[in-house]
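hey m, so remember when u said the tokens were messed up on ur end? i reran from scratch. heres the input so u can diff it against urs
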Amino acid sequence: MTPRVSAEPACPLGAQAVQVAARATNMMGKSAEREWPAEQAIAWEGLLEVSRRLRRGAEELLLERFDLSISMLGIIGRLSLAPENTLRQTAIADAMGLSLSRVSRVVDIVEERGLVERHSCPNDQRATNVKLTAAGAELTSRAQCELFSYVRSGFFDRLEPAEVRTLATVFARLLEDSQEG
């Protein structure tokens, strides 16, 4: 089923957009079919689909060229910006919104590759610090450059400056509103 259209859509929907918008009914049932105009269905489902495609493309690029996952680059990227390229493992987990056990597993992998080293925290022997190595810093820089180019060409180059401003305004408001609830 395709979402209902209460009037002519403000933006023309291509066949793929209609197909993506139809997922709203699959996920949210008859309410979405009855109550959402096509613009709302494509706004919601389009956001999810574009995000999924861009993230999958970024992950494929990083894995193919650098043997890194998004999580791995997130960790070593944070370390590259940290004082002395070092952070507590718990601080990494908090910053990334991941569990400590997930971060620990990812750090295990990048440590085996010689990209990071673990050390006891000098201020708290119960804590573990993670430090980026020279090899890790070099790989981080190359991977970040590639990812930056991918995001620019796959996202920003396809939008007008006014569209980018609109998206930034909308997402900033939605992010702020989500913190209040």
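this time it looks ok to me. The longest helix spans residues 38-66. if urs says something different then somethings off w ur setup not the seq
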